[in-house]
Amino acid sequence: MYWLALMTAGFFEVIGVLNVKRLADKQRNALYYIILFFGLSFLLLSYAMREIPMGMAYAIWTGIGTVGSAIMGMCLFNEPRDWKRLSCIAVILISAVGLKLAV
User: Fold this and answer.
1) Could you tell me the pTM of the whole model?
2) Is 58 in contact with 95 (CB distance < 8 Å)?
3) pLDDT tens, 5-32?
4) What distance in Å separates the CA atoms of residue 86 and residue 1, rounded to the nearest whole number?
5) 3-state SS of the chain?
């Protein structure tokens, strides 16, 4: 259950970041969604940290947010998809898996 909470927290972080982009583009009501999704993300992260070690939980949470936001930027906003960016995303994913396997 803690791992599901952590994955959901990461997903909500990505949704929060997408709403930051909406706010930057001056779309209405984006601030409410930012508060909602980042708030839910932090609540679920703190719940997950009851069982998952803090360093691992935080690294995985930020990894999901970073990778998810980068992929959403590529898909929704036509951000570059060059091999350097994709390689860095792969390193983040490999690092998160490595942290889990190391425990």
Assistant:
1) 0.87
2) no
3) 999 999 999 999 999 999 998 888 899 9
4) 30
5) CHHHHHHHHHHHHHHHHHHHHHHHCCCCCHHHHHHHHHHHHHHHHHHHCCCCCHHHHHHHHHHHHHHHHHHHHHHHCCCCCCHHHHHHHHHHHHHHHHHHHHC
